[in-house]
Each structure stands twice: as structure tokens, then as C-alpha cells.
Amino acid sequence: MELLNAIVALTNYVLIPGMAYGSQLALGALGVTLIYGILRFSNFAHGDTMAFGAMITILVTWGFQASGISLGVLPTALLALPFGIAGTALLLVATDRVVYRFYREQKAKPVILVIVSLGVMFIMNGIVRFIIGPDDQNFADGARFIISARDFKAWSGLDEGLALRTSQALTVVTAVIVVALLFWFLNRTRTGKSMRAYSDNEDLALLSGINPERVVTYTWLIVAGLTTVAGVLYGLDKSFKPFTYFQLLLPIFAAAIVGGLGNPLGAIAGGFVIAFSEVTITYAWKKVLGYLLPDSLEPSSLVQLLSTDYKFAVSFVILLIVLLFKPTGLFRGKSV
Amino acid sequence: MSNPYHDDRGNKDASITRRGGAGEIPYRKGGPAVKSEAKSAFLIGETMTGGYGKGPDILHDCTIAVDPGEIAVIVGPNGAGKSTAMKAVFGMLDLRGGHVLLDGEDISALTPQDRVAKGMGFVPQTNNIFTSMSVEENLEMGAFIRRDDFRDTMAQVYDLFPILKEKRLQAAGELSGGQRQQVAVGRALMTKPKVLMLDEPTAGVSPIVMDELFDRIIEVSRTGIPILMVEQNARQALEIADKGYVLVQGRNAHTGTGKDLLADDEVRRSFLGG
Amino acid sequence: MIVVEDVHKHFGGFHAVDGATLTIREGSITGLIGPNGAGKTTLFNVIAGVLEPTSGRVTMGGEDITGLPPHDLFHKGLLRTFQIAHEFSSMSCRENLMMVPGAQSGETLWNTWFGRRRIADEERALKAKADEVLEFLTIEHLADHKAGQISGGQKKLLELGRTMMVDARIVFLDEVGAGVNRTLLNTIGDAILRLNAERGYTFVVIEHDMDFIDRLCDPVICMAEGKVLAEGTLAEIKANEQVIEAYLGTGLKNKGLVQGDTVGA
Amino acid sequence: MSETMRNVMLFAIVAVLIVGSGFLQSWNTALLILNMGLISAIMAIGVNLQWGFAGLFNVGIMGFVALGGLATVLVSMQPVPDAWSAGGMGVLLGLLLGAATIVATVQVYKRMPRGAMRSLAVLAILIVGFFVYRGVLDPGVDAVEQVNPALEGYLGGLGLPVLVAWPVGGLLAAGAAWLIGKTALGLRSDYLAIATLGIAEIIIAILKNEDWLSRGVKNVVGIPRPMAYEIDLQGDPSFVERAASLGLDPVEASTLYVKLIYAALFLVVLLVILWMSQMALKSPWGRMMRAIRDNEVAAEAMGKDVTRRHLQIFVLGSAVCGLAGAMLTTLDGQLTPGTYQPLRFTFLVWVMVIVGGSGNNFGAVLGGFLIWFLWVQVEPMGIWLMQTVTSGMADGYWLKDHLMDSAAHMRLFTMGLVLLLVLRFSPRGLIPEK
Amino acid sequence: DDVKLGILFGFTGPIESLAGPMASGAELAIKEVNDSGAFMDGATVTPMRADSGCIDNGLATSNAERLIADGIAGLIGGDCSGVTGAVLQNVAIPNGMVMISPSATSPGLSTVEDNDLFFRTAPSDAREGQVMTEVLQDRGIKSIALTYTNNDYGKGLADAIKSNFEAAGGEVTIYAAHEDGKADYSAEVGALASAGGDILVVAGYLDQGGLGIIRSALDSGAFDTFGLPGGMIGESLPTNVGPDLDGSFGQIAGTEGDGIDRLVEMAGSDFDATSPYTPESYDAAALFMFAMQAAKSTDPAAYGPKILEVANAPGEKIYPGELAKGLQIIADGGDIDYVGASAVELIGPGESAGTYREIEVKDGKNETVKIR
Ligand SMILES: Nc1ncnc2c1ncn2[C@@H]1O[C@H](COP(=O)(O)OP(=O)(O)OP(=O)(O)O)[C@@H](O)[C@H]1O
Ligand SMILES: Nc1ncnc2c1ncn2[C@@H]1O[C@H](COP(=O)(O)OP(=O)(O)OP(=O)(O)O)[C@@H](O)[C@H]1O
Ligand SMILES: CC(C)C[C@H](N)C(=O)O
Ligand SMILES: [Mg+2]
Ligand SMILES: [Mg+2]
Questions:
Q1: CA distance E31 to E197
Q2: Burial class of residue C123 in the structure, from the number of CB atoms within 10 Å of its CB (0-12 exposed, 13-18 middle, 19+ buried)
């Protein structure tokens, strides 16, 4: 019983949140990694693109909700997702045409593109706040829980609850599907391979008859899909607030880099490394130990390695340690 | 330049931007191909004048032509503009004078991609493979514009370069210099091009491979594909050449059959190393 | 001078260098040949400190230099060129050369502020030297061109030029000839011979051009599959069945090379 | 137009912009922009040293700037005797023990042969060291933080003149950079970015949470100034008189006076640093750095100790940022760790360098001034824009309200637009590297 | 003629969602005065917004300089304690400008050397610590887990709560900071849950980390009831969290009844008048105008000393919507005691004395259950 309680507590406070957060980061990192791999720069506008995608989806979701359309237990937002993706795709492709293409044609140094993306970030930042405002928006509906803590306690008779939110399960499942799809696409399809070829050697791709503009467009389309899905899932799970999406940028980059920039598998792994290091290192073991140890030994302090103040710092230290032993990231950060 | 040996080259911006592979082919707006009445060779760059970007002219009234069944070889000192002439023919730089004709069409306005679609194949001097992709994928990419079944072509390429079959699944970037060269030529052959352009295909390959490469090049040309190539192994190249061009400072200095040039004392002395 | 003892270099499961053992005599010009992928460049990289050997030992004049970083080896007089040119692309050709000599007083920050006179003198000497080398390589007109914008062959020349800026003890040349005009290659050959004779440089030359090897090198070492296959004079090597099969091919006979048609006579 | 002419023109334009805001808005505004511009220019030079000259991508600028800020507190605030007597020694001892642990670890790591024994020993030292360190430090910290927490609760500084803090800020940043460089540069410099990003966050986390050091998020206010306070000047009859003789009222005269003195101080620092980096750049040292940036492998083969040089320039650039950070905190008159945000202190500086022209010191300086000017002035432009757009709409119309409410967000928007425009028409920066 | 009032809030940055209603609150007061025509013989007041970034000292001081250059007669702001201190030190004091902050609540600002130029319509957090302890004790709570937003506001408040509660014999099981605007709070909630406690007190912002923590804690079943200090009180919280929040309680500066209700009514649907510090903003603006009226001058040196006079007794009590009446009384030589929307009562160094409403969430609404 005590052991069960300990396991449940750990699952509830470490495992499940870590999985969900990890998947969210992974989805974001995938997009970052893809742009890095194929278009050769780190896209600082990524967080705000996620916000944009989520925003469009939210607006459509509200429309559906107002007209009474819903998905039952699943969030209506899923129904609105294709619209969000389409809107984001439109925005990204337009941005590319208006902004990035020029620099590609000029053969500008990639770092210029990075800074350009910073400019785009500022602009998208403005647009999103302009349309939906800086406030928190709630758009989740459907069943919030698959298992709620209270029900679990009643059902199992344990002291500890176990909660699994619909959004958490959705996030993990989606992440798995998306990654599998992306892999299949890049390694097995003609278009996917042409994207890798372009990523490897632009000139030679051109000389092989691959149309660079098409590759670029495809990339943005995929990125639109990835960012919107990531943005919406994150919004469903936590809440939508433009500023948070900007803040997400940092852990997302950390995830992409620790996994090995440019490598999709790495993005996934990186997401989990970052998420779990944040959750575990600062976890206070008092409760778990309290269940496991006999009463006499029960800890009086929190048994916490470091206070949560340093949560962020800790995840970076972990990151540095990983890089110490695997300097190119967990998976060789080379190309898509 | 992504090459396994040089992985660490310039740490620059490697963590926010990816280096390597970034193109040098300048962007240009394409135009249509126009029928041309001019009666001339199958592929000809006629009186080409031009240079890089806004820089000075590198080529001056340079003419290069090749016909089906022919091998045309360009030789000349380093920096003469041989590679530049090839790039000009392939539309990788803006001509300030002259034009390029292919099969009775003026293709001067076409972009490089369009020229690939018209059946031109090109192996650049450097950066001529996809380093992160497997050898097989490199060949597949060579056949990118082909919609038909290209397995037999691939088998032919493997026949020609058996080592490639062996390393089929290895990343091309992990091959040695000579092996990479073989991949590059193989990739170009995969297009089944109407005309093949090679920039120093034998640089750095071992004698045995070089012989085979030359043999294969002759074979390819016998199938009726015109071949235009730049060579520094000029004597071997001129031996198999139907036509030879000696370029000096972007101008045609000598033109003739391969044999003629080999026999020409001045050419031998100044360009072929005696 | 350089002794390589049972060096292995593995990439994953692949044995690029697989137990190479060889000795390079002081004052010699040693040719290193072998089929593509034999492991020549990899061995170079191991000796020059770019790659850490999986196992084995490299000594130079009796001193163990295994695993020393390239910049230390440079100061011990070991220089190398790269098979694929490694120019400093945004610097002019002259600067490419001028940066080479070590221990320039202008490389100390303090002097850049408080020792300007001395730097100026040094720079003048360096510039003269660099121009001399450029002229020697027949690329003096490129002195102020950015090295990134010169032709492929010219870059190779520049690579060679860098080794001429300092007094080296041993120079490793990785395919200087590939892509270099044959007439110029002869000049380079002359230079190598002269440096060898006058300044006592030891050279190790990787090259696929048998004419070139023939003219310069003695002894010649042939590698294949990561091991040393044969060693001796070029004539001996050419007669070696294994070498012919793995590397030279029979085609050579047709091209007249085996009959000893050498260049530059 | 010759290049020099063009560059002079560019600087002239920036000067006109700043002077223009002096005429149109107020001279106080203009001088404030100038002062912040000077500081920004110094930061930009620091980053330019690292990126433009050595290709080191440092995204931890914020951390070094913050360390500079910390230096001002540690140097110029008055010590808090109560806190010292309460727990100062404990804290000091704890820190020493911590440092000793690290030194011991490194020594053991270096001395002992590779193997399980070494790992064990290192681990043991670290664990024991950590607990001893916490054991000694924590009570000291608690004691210190109990001392008048609303106002003090920290150890205070040395009570030295604040100008001393500027070089100290540089040194502090240099020290941190050295530590980072030692670990990150030696490894694989590609990942320097993430290392710096992380360490900057760690530095901020320390500043925010170690209250005994600089009051954490409770901020240190009232950092002394290198010159008189406006209020004192306003109360000084001779000053008032002189102001009057210039036709200025005392309030305005005093504020201008203070800012002018700052401007002069900052300008001197900027010029010295600019001169030093220009000299270095144009010497063989600069040539070597460019060679390293272009191609590390080749530079290494040509005998240049790339790792050492990277470390050198990384430390230098960071020190410059630290110096700028100390100047900034001095100008602010307070240390507020919460204000250190990557957007403002890392990305904005990067924008300055890139827009100005990386690899060119003058470019960096220009970028510093220009981008700061825009950062400050774009908001009124945004509001003005919105007013113009909505002028036709009726009061209270939802769109008008919505637009006016969004005006502040126009700052970021316009900033982005300006950035894109500059980059569009001069992708290598306004004053590109030659 | 025209009198300008500067409004310096963080329209961008971490409290950008609070700044909008706050500014609207201040502007509502100004509009009310302008509509009345009773201000200083028919003068009009123009609000001028500027961004403080909440945490960007450089920006805030520049913008404050700019406002002063534009000729403002008083500065409503800043919002966050950090920038408020910076602006006060670097701009207001040197220029002799009066600042009334509606929201900077850091205890440190009470003792700052301000030349009598700084006032605030919000109480210092030191006071809230006492009030919260009373509330907790009255509800029989013995132990709390305490988390705060990691800035001077959160830390100061949490310090106050902790020391008061512990002095009163309560136990604080964990005292942990959280950063606002972060992507995920699982780690924090994990630690808080592990430490346990009767309730979780969240000294944060209701649309920032505070919300994230509460969501996460409820979802995982870590805590059911929450203690909500002022930064967490606002209609958006129950709306966003849902019925699970019922039963949680807290307190916010303000009084019951009239003041705030009237403001809510006046604001209508234009903005949310119950948004944190919005009433205080309205009051800050009103105080400026009353003081100017009383001094018959817009010179800070002249009207500054009047602020305490109009804010406190004796005099006729003035509520939101009655600004015209107040102005008239002053013009007629009478005295007012401005109560406003947040029960303004300035004490000591010119800050709100701090009457608090004890709030409990019932049926998804914040209900005032008591005044303290
Ligand atoms: N980084 C690497 N990873 C994996 N394999 C490698 C790597 N570098 C080299 N190899 C392999 O090692 C073998 C030897 O390569 P090396 O470049 O040394 O050959 P080489 O003798 O110099 O050939 P060439 O004459 O063609 O230049 C090749 O088969 C190559 O595929
Ligand atoms: N990207 C470039 N930008 C500007 N100038 C260039 C560029 N590439 C080459 N050049 C210049 O053009 C001239 C001709 O170069 P090209 O590469 O055509 O020579 P090449 O005949 O192919 O020589 P090699 O045999 O050495 O390869 C050279 O003088 C070189 O400086
Ligand atoms: C706007 C408010 C939430 C600010 C907070 N009271 C502070 O002092 O920082
Ligand atoms: Mg060439
Ligand atoms: Mg090789």
C-alpha cells in the first residue's frame, strides 16, 4: 500500500507532467530543428508562430462553440486545428515571400536570417497581441480529465490521487504520431528526400533539378503544421497567453540543442531531457520517502536537492553536462 | 563545405545557423528558351563575356561548343576561367555578352534548374555530393527529375563504380576524396543527361579509377551524349578529346582537336607541363 | 624522423587506418600513394594531431607526439596542407600568408597598444616575404584578392605557400597536385626539391599523379585498406603485383607511364 | 560617395536624430538617449569582439551585464555592520569552503589516473564538500537575511567610490567568462551558445535568490553616484545662479548637468575601448583572430592555439559587457535583477551588432546608438500612427479603442519593421566589415 | 487650458494584461472630470500613456523623461515596484515631479527618500501579511505551503505573510518562489505537494504564474483550497479555473460596497474595473485632480502637499462618480475626504492605510465576506 502510494505520487507529480511537458517541448523543438536543418537558421519567431497558430485555432474554436458544434469528450479545438494550420501556413508562406526569400536570393549569411527572424518575432508578437490581446484566453472544452485525482482516490482507496488530463494524453499521442509521420516523410518520400538534399547542399540540389522554392515552401507548410499543433496542445493543457509562448522559446531551443540541432529524433529526446530535469531535480522527495520509509525515519525536511528557485538553472546545468559528454547533442546534430 | 574531416571548421554560428551547403549559385530570374535559327553545335556557349556579381569580367568573348558523340575538353592554367566558363554555360552566372544555345534553342535566359530539365547534367569541381545522404540517396537525387523507373541506370552506375555499391548505405560524406568523386559522377549520370558537363572529374582519384573514369566517359560519349569537361590531367584528357579548348585569362587561346593540341609545342610547354 | 607505430584509427566499426607502421627518413621526400579510401589522409590527420588515434604511437625525432594538438606540432616544425583547401576565405591572399609565422610580437594584445613600432617593422618584413612567396607561386596578382574568391587550383597553391612562410622541419602535402595545372605542378615540384635541398625540409607527399611522384619521391609508400602495402623506390613499387592490382591498374601500361615516360626532362 | 563619407553620413544621421529629439521633445530625453546609446555602444563592441572578430556566439550577454551591475553594489554600497556581525563570517567561510571544494575536485581530477577510483574520489569530494558548504553557509545566510530585511538583509558593499565599480564589473564578468570559457570553449565551441545562454540564466537566478549578496529580487536602491545629486545642485545658490545666467531654470539645468557629466564619463570609456579594439583589430593579432574565425582547423594547423585565443577574446568581450553593465547600473542608481531579460539585454544587443555591421567596431557603435534610439522612440511613433489611423473614427467605436489599446504593442511591431527594413537594404549591416 | 497627466504602466511585459484596465481606470476618472467642466475653471485634463515595461528600468526612465518633457503636471505610476523605484530616483525626484502609484506595493518604497513626491493608493505589502495571518487564523488553518512570484512584490509579500503567520504559531511547510510566465509549473507543484499543508497560499499574479500554479495543483489533486492575496483577486481567476476554486479565500486592499460597485457600474463593459489595481488607478488620477484643484495650481511643488489633505478626513466623503461634486466643494472652499473606489486613506509616508476585503470564492464568484 505504502509502496503503491509512493509510486502513484511519483507518477502523478513527476512522470505524467514530465511526459506531457516533454512532448510539448519536443513538438516545438521539432519545428525549430526542421527550420534549422533545411533553411539553416534558428528561428526566433518560433514561439510567436506557435502563438499565432493557437490564436487562429482559438478564434475558430470560439466560432464553433458559439454555433454549438463540438467533439463531445474531445476538445473542440481539434476540429478547428486544420483552420489554424491553414492560417499559419498562409502567414508563414507569406512571410517567407515577403521577408526571407529576399535574403535567400542575396545569399545573406545565415546569422542575418537569425536576426531577421528576430524582427519577424517582434512583428508577430505585435500582430498576435493586436488581434487577441495580451490576456489569458481559455478555450479548452470537452472532458478535462481521463482520470481525475478524486475519482482515482475513490476507486483505488489510496491516499494519493492520480490525474491524467485529456490534453496530456492528447499531447503525448500526437507527438508520437507526428514524429513517426515526419520520419516517414523525410526518409521515404521523394519530396522528403529532396528536402534533405536541399538541406545538405543547396547548389547541388539545384543542379539535380530540385526546385529550392518548392522545398522551402514545403518546409514552411510542415512547420506551420508542427507549430500550430504544438501551440494548440500547449494552450489546451496550460492556457493561451502570448507572453508565455515567447517564454517557451528558451526551453524549446534548449531541447533542440541538447538533442542535437537539426535532428528530429534529437528534438524529441531533448524535449524529455529538459522536461524531466526540470521536474525531477527540484522535486521534494519528502512525500515519497515518507511512504517508503518506516515512520521513525520519516524525513522532517523536504529532501529537495535544490529549491525550485533554481529550477531553470538546474535544467541548464543538466544540459551542459549532457553536452560535456555528448558535445554535438544526444543525436548528432547534423542535418535532417 | 561539409566534409567529415572538417566538421569543426569555423565554429562561427554553428549553434544558431547551420553552415555548409549554403549555395553559391546566385539567384536569377529565369526567362523562356527561344528558338534560334543560328546553325551551330548542339551545345554552344558563344562569345560569352561575364564575371561574378558586380566584379570584373572573367570571361572575354569565350566560345565553347560540343556536339553529340563528342568529348570537348577545356584546359588552361589555374584561374584561367575554366570553371567560370562551365558555370556560364550552365546559367550559374549572368552573362554580360554572348549567349548559350542548346539543340537549336537559345537558353541564355533559363535558370540552372530549367537547364537541368532541358537535359543538361553538371558535376561541379567542389561540393559535388550530398554529404549527409547515403550513396544510394545521392544517386536517387541525381534522378530527381526523372519520373520513370531508374533502377537500371542505378545498376549501371554501380557496375561502373563497384565501390559505391559496397558503400551504398554509407553517408557519402564519410567517403574518401576519390570515392566522393565517383559518387558525383554517378549522380550526374543518373539524370540520363542529353549533355554532360564535368568540372575536373578526376581530381584526386587514383590512377586505376582515373583510367576507368576516362573509359566510362568515352563510353558515355559513344552513346551519343556530348561531354564537356575541364581537366588538369590534360594529356590523358586531350588524348580522348575530339575537341580541345585552351583558355587563358578567360579567352580562347588555342582551339583544335585533342591530337592537334597535344602536338602543338607551345601548348604542350605552357599548359601541359612539357 | 617520424616513426608511426601500429596506428589504428576507427570510425565506428570502420577501420580507416588499420595498423599502419612506417618510418619517414629525415631529409627525404617520401611519397604516399594508395587507392582512394586507403587511409592516407586519415593517417595524415592522425600524425598532424587533427584526429586522435584509436591506438598506436607517433614519434618525431624520438619524441612522442601522439595526440599533441596541431598548433603544438606546428611549433615543433610539423606543417601540413589540406586535400580540400582550407583557405581563410575572408582574408586576402597576402594576409593568408602573413598570418602564418608564429611568435609574432603583434599577436600579443599588449603590443598592439604599446608596441606599435616593433609591429610595424615586423610587418614590413613579413609582407616582403609573403609577396616573394606569391610571386614564386605565380599568383602575385591575387595578393589583395579574398582567398575565398580565387579558383580551386589557386587555393591549392596558397596552401602550399603557407608552408613556405616559416622554416619547417617536415611538411605533409595532401594532394597538392589535384587540380593544379601540370606546368605549374612542375614548378611546385621544383620548389619542393629546392626546399628539400637548400633548407633541408623533409616532405611527405600524397599524390595520385605518378609523374609527379616519380620525379620527386624516394622512397614511396603504398597504402591500401589502412595498412602499408609496399615500400621502396617507385620502380620497385610499380613492379609490385599487389600495388598494380589495387592501385595503378593495367591501364598505365597503355598510357606509357610504366615505361618510365617521366615529366620535365 | 566614398565609404568614409558614407559612414560619416550615417553617424551624422544618428546625431541628427538625437539632437532632433532634443529640439522636438526635450534635451533631457536627448541626453538620456545619448547616455544609453553610449552604454549600448560599449556592449555592442564587446559582442562584436566575440562574434565579429572571433565568431563566438555569445547569447549570455545578459549575465555579464548583470555581473557588472552586481559589482556596483558590492563596491559602492555602504557595508551593513549588523549583517556582517550576524553572519558575515559564516557566509565568507562557506564561500571559501565551496571554492576549496571545487579546487580540490579539479586537482584530484587532474592528478589521479583515469578510472573508477577517480570518479569515486571526485564524487565523494563533491558530495561532502557540498554538504559542508551548505552547512556553513546556510546559517550565515539566514542570519544575514534576518537583519532588517525590508531595507537591508544583505552584507552591503565596500563603500568605495562607484567609479571603482566599473573596472571591477569588467573583472567580475571576465572571471565568469574565464570559467565558462574554460569548460565550454575547450570542448566544442559550437555549443558555446547554449552554455552562455544557460549560464546567463544561472547568474540571474543567483542574483534573484541570494538575498545576502544583493538583496535578491528586493532590489538595491540608492546606489551612489559619481557626481552630485540634482536636488543638491538645485539647492546650491552658485549653481542656480550660473544656470540663470544661461537662461535655464535650476531644475532643468541640474538634470542636464548630471546627464552631461555621465555622457562625458561614458564617452571617455567608449573612446578608450574603441581605440583599443581598433588597434588590436588592425594588428597581427586581429589578423590571427580573423583567420581563426574563418577556419579553425587551418589556423590550428598554422600554429595558432585556437582554444587559448578563443578564451582570450571571450574573456575580453565579456569584460567589456561587464563594464557596460556596471555603467548602466550606476546610471540607473539601482540594481533590479528582475529587469535582466534576454530580450532586452541579449537580443537587443545582438540586433545592434548586426544592424550596425558585425566585424566592424564603428558599425557596432552606430548600431548601439541607432537601435537604442529606436527602442525608445518607436513607441511614441506607434501611438502617433494609431492616432492618425483612428482619427476618422468616432469616439468610443470599438475598433478605435482596440487600436489605441494596442498602441503600446506597436513598439515591438515597429521595432521589428525597422529591423527588417535596415537589414533589407543593407544586409551586412550599415557599416559592413571591410 | 490643458493639464496633462502621465500614465506610466507596463503595457508590454509581464503584467501587460493588468495595465490595460488600470490605465482605463485612470482615464475614466479624467474623463469624468473633463465632462464635469468643474476642474480649475474649466480646464481639461489629457492623459498621456507611456510604457514602463514593468521590468525595464531603461525604458521606464526614458519614457518618464519623455512624459516630463511633454509637460505633464503629474505622473500616475509606475506599476511594478522595481521600475517605480527607478523612475522615482532618476526622474521624479530630480525633476520635482509628483508620482502616485496605484500598484507598487513593495515595503521598501515606504522608507525611500522621496522628498515628499511619492504617494501610493495601494497599501504596503507589510500590512497585507498581517491581514492574511488574521484571515488564516480565523479559519483555523495551522499550516500552509507558500509560493510567491519571484520579484520584489511577491517576495516582500511572502516574507510578510511568513513572518506574521509563524509569529502567530502557524507552520509554513515550504517557502518557494515561482517565475512568472514560464512554460510549465509541474516542478513547483511537485515540490509544494510533497511539502503538504492545509492550504496553498499563492502570492502571485492571477494571470501569471499564480494561475498556472493553481491550475496545476488542482489538476494533480495536490491542494483543494488556496489562499489568495491581492495579486490573485480578480474575476478572471474563478472564471479561468472553474468551480474547483470554490472555497478558496483571500483578501485585497479595498472596501466594500459603494466605491468599487460604483466604479464597476461606471466602467460598464468598457473594461474590467475589478481587475487588480484598477480602482487604485482611478483613485490615483482623482487624487491628482483634487489636489490641483485645492492648490489652484498644477505646479507639483504647490499641489503636492495637498494630496494628503484631500485624501484624508476631515471633509465630505467622495466616491467614484462624484468627482464633480468633490471639485465643486473644493472650489467653494470646502474640504473633502476622498474615499474613491479603494477606500483611500493615506498614512505615514503617503501610502494607503490598507483596509482589506476578505474574499471567498463562492459559485465561481469572488464574494466579499468581511472587511478587515
Ligand atoms: N569521419 C569519418 N567517418 C567514417 N569514415 C571515414 C571518416 N573519414 C574517413 N572515413 C573512411 O576512411 C577511409 C579512408 O579515408 P581517407 O580519406 O583517409 O582515404 P585516402 O587514402 O586519403 O583517399 P583519397 O586518395 O581518396 O583521398 C575511407 O573509406 C573513408 O570512407
Ligand atoms: N566566386 C567567385 N567570386 C569572384 N571571383 C571568382 C569566384 N570564383 C572564381 N573567381 C575568379 O575567377 C577567375 C577564374 O576562376 P575559375 O574558377 O574559373 O578558374 P579555373 O580556370 O577553373 O581554375 P582552376 O583550374 O584552378 O580550377 C579567378 O581569377 C578567380 O579569382
Ligand atoms: C502591478 C502590480 C501587480 C505590481 C506589484 N504590486 C508590484 O509591486 O510589483
Ligand atoms: Mg576550376
Ligand atoms: Mg585523401
A1: 48
A2: middle
SS3 call for A41? strand
Q: How many angstroms is it from D155 CA to the middle of ligand 4? A: 69
> Chain B contacts of A261, Cβ < 8 Å?
15, 18
What distance in Å separates the CA atoms of residue D394 and residue D401, rounded to the nearest whole number?
10
Could you tell me the distance, in angstroms and rounded to a whole number, from the CA of residue E36 to the centre of ligand 2? 81
pLDDT of E255 strictly over 70: no
- For residue E279, give every residue at least 6 positions away whose Cβ sits within 8 Å of its Cβ, in sequence order, or none: E25, E254, E259, E260, E263, E273, E320, E340, E341, E342
Instruction: Note the maximum CA span of chain D.
Output: 81
Class of domain C2-88+166-258: alpha beta
Instruction: Compute, in angstroms, the gap from residue B172 CA to the centroid of ligand 5.
Output: 14
- For the CA of C35, the nearest ligand: 1
Q: How many angstroms away from the CA of A218 is the closest CA of chain E?
A: 29
A16-55 residues labelled b (16+ CB within 10 A) or e (exposed): bbbbbbbbbbbbbbbbbbbbbbbbbbbbbbbbbbbbbbbb
Give residues 207 to 236 of D whose Cβ lies within 8 Å of E.
Answer: 208-209, 216-219, 221-222, 229-231, 234
Are B207 and C248 within 8 A, CB to CB?
yes
- Contact (Cβ atoms closer than 8 angstroms) between residue D152 and residue D73: no
Does the beta-carbon distance from D192 to B16 stay under 8 Å?
Answer: no
Tell me whether residues A206 and B23 touch, CB distance under 8 A. Answer: yes
Task: Report the run of H or E that residue C19 belongs to, with start and end.
Answer: strand C14-24
As assigned by CATH, the class of the A2-325 domain is: mainly alpha
The reply to whether E364 touches chain A by the CB within 8 Å rule is: no
Q: List chain D residues with pLDDT less than 50.
A: 188-190
Q: Do B144 and A197 touch (CB under 8 A)?
A: yes
Spatial distance between the Cα atoms of D171 and D116, rounded to a whole number of angstroms: 38
Q: In what order do the strands lie in the sheet with C202-206?
A: C78-80, C170-174, C202-206, C29-33, C220-224, C227-232
Quickly state the pLDDT bin for C255 (edges 50, 70, 90): very low
pLDDT at residue A328, as a whole number: 65
User: Which residue from D280, D283, D300 is facing C71, i.e. has the nearest CB?
Assistant: D300
**pTM summary value:** 0.83
Residues 6+ positions from D192 with CB-CB distance below 8 Å: B11, B15, D56, D57, D58, D184, D185, D314
Q: How confident is the model at residue C256 (pLDDT cuts 50, 70, 90)?
A: very low
pLDDT digits (tens, 9 = 90+) for A87-135: 999 999 999 999 999 888 877 777 778 878 888 998 998 889 888 887 7
Position B216: which residue type?
R
C-alpha cell at D177: 567568462
pLDDT of the residue at D358 = 79
